[in-house]
């Protein structure tokens, strides 16, 4: 790791800590002795197969944004935890490419545990529910 202050490549790790986004490391430069923090997150080459047949790289931000729209009363730290949990569950499936339908199922399972109204909001969009009777049927699955 190069020092951001003097570009020297001899830095040492003083402290490592797991955070919700990955690993946080405090570092010190061997030359100028300045300290700085780095954040590390593993990168996974996961591809998503869309309903229309297009392929695109998996993006955790899309899940996070969908959860934010669905979960009005859930705080941000909980949303980050849920997003990370969903990402881990999707990666554990070891399916590449993964279909959007499968991603939606995992998201719905997690939403059902934390907020039933958020589940209904997400399900109505993910499952393209336009008929009130279908929405009522979906409501019966969570009660």
Summarize the structure.
The protein is of the alpha+beta class. It has five helices and six strands, in the order βββββααβααα.
Structural write-up:
It is a single chain. By secondary structure, the chain is of the alpha+beta class. The chain folds into 2 domains: 11-40, no CATH class; 47-142. It is built from 5 helices and 6 strands. The chain has helices spanning 60-70, 76-92, 100-114, 116-126, 132-142, and strands at residues 11-19, 22-29, 35-40, 47-49, 55-57, 98-99. The strands form 2 sheets. A 3-stranded antiparallel beta sheet has the order 1-2-3, with no helix packed on it. A 3-stranded mixed beta sheet has the order 5-4-6. A hairpin with a 2-residue loop joins strand 1 (11-19) and strand 2 (22-29). The radius of gyration is 20 Å and the shape is elongated. The termini are far apart. The relative contact order is 0.11.
SSE diagram, text form:
Elements lengths: L10 E9 L2 E8 L5 E6 L6 E3 L5 E3 L2 H11 L5 H17 L5 E2 H15 L1 H11 L5 H11 L1
Parallel strand pairs: 4-6
Antiparallel strand pairs: 1-2, 2-3, 4-5
The amount of beta strand, in percent, is 15-25%
Cα separation of the termini: 52 Å
In total, how many beta strands?
A: 6
Give the oligomeric state of the chains in this entry, treating copies of one chain as homo and distinct chains as hetero: single chain
Walk across the major sheet and give the strand order.
1-2-3
Largest sheet geometry = 3 strands, antiparallel
Helix percent reads 40-55%
Average predicted confidence as pLDDT: 90
- Return the string of H and E elements: EEEEEHHEHHH
Which word captures the global form?
Answer: elongated
């Amino acid at each position: 790791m190069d020092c951001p202050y003097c570009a020297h490549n001899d830095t040492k790790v003083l402290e490592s800590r797991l955070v919700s986004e990955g690993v946080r490391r405090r570092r010190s430069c061997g030359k100028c002795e300045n300290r700085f923090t780095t954040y590390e997150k593993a990168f996974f080459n996961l591809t998503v197969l869309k309903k229309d047949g297009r392929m695109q790289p998996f993006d955790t931000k899309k899940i996070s944004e969908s959860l934010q729209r669905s979960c009005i009363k859930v705080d941000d730290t909980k949303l980050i935890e849920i997003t990370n949990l969903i990402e881990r569950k999707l990666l554990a499936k070891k399916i590449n490419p993964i279909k959007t339908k499968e991603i939606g199922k995992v998201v719905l399972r997690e939403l059902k545990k934390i907020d039933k109204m958020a589940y209904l909001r997400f399900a109505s969009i993910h499952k393209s529910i336009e008929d009130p009777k279908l929405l009522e049927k979906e409501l019966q699955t969570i009660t």
